[in-house]
Amino acid sequence: MNNTIFHHKQTAHCESGVISNLLGHHGLKISEPMAFGIGAGLFFAHLPFIKVNGVPGTTYRIWPGAISQRVCKRLGVKMEAAKFSTPAKGMAALDDVIEAGIPVGLLSSVYYLPYFPASYRFHFNAHNLVVYGKKEGQYLVSDPVMDTVTEIDPDSLVQARFAKGFPAPKGKMYYPVHVPANASFRQPIKEGIQQTCHYMLKVPLPMFGVSGIRFLANRVKSYPEKVGDRKATLYLGNVIRMQEEIGTGGAGFRFLYAAFLQEAAEMLQKDELGKLAGELTKTGDLWRNFAFAAGRVCKSRAADTVSYKDLSEMLLQCAASEDAFFRKLAQVKW
């Protein structure tokens, strides 16, 4: 395997960033937006029956792990992955692999990563990072959302890898064992786009895709009456946080997916994809406007001008824009 120096590259999102950095280390150059798009990372779901820290779950991306799995399958990469029953087994396995000079992707909880500022440390158990070595008892970390490499002590790393809660990371680690020297991106791009369109337009349940955005819009409108002002603020705040903090890159990954379409347009010389990238950027602006207005409502700065009904209307506008966009994207001729 490749024992060259690991080059850290900051990215917008952890999972697509880690897969981009790991594959790049082994000679397969793939940008983060391209990994996100081939992995069909863009999604939407609002799941009021699944509570995360007592708040209904909202996600703007596909479930954790899916992006990496799809990228590897579509590009012919073989990834070794394992979970562990005890921290001792998990740390011993990690040490064995990094001693062989192989960078390792890890699943972790943000809460136990001491290099994050306190305000960013909360119980989110699906954060991906790379450990690429060990020095004087400290693990060398390339966390793609950080601007530079860092270190972590063994105790904190154990806590992060074996955090309790949902989903429990169980010490998951993964690393490439076969990376093709050359890979064609055309078919993987096509498959990634078609899968994203399917999930956004055709899942026959109201909580998912474009229908899910409308579903959330209808619930937001009645938050104050249904759950009271305090919970309404908490629920709304989580929708924004998942969009602008967990959905790093902005607007719930819409800007990141637009960057993928722009890169795909240039790589495949399909101007149509470039035009659609511009349309999705405008949709991203609608999401940003929603987040700004909702944030002011949460801080009670716009109680007299912006209502929950207004926010609901903004979400419906996002849904209409995404509906039109994905229908056009689904009709691209290959």
From TrEMBL:
Domain Butirosin biosynthesis protein H N-terminal as annotated: residue spans: 13-144
Ranges where the DUF4872 domain occurs: 156-329
Pfam families, per database record: BtrH_N (PF14399), DUF4872 (PF16169)
InterPro entries per the UniProt record, alphabetical: BtrH_N (IPR026935), DUF4872 (IPR032369)
Protein name stated in the entry: BtrH N-terminal domain-containing protein
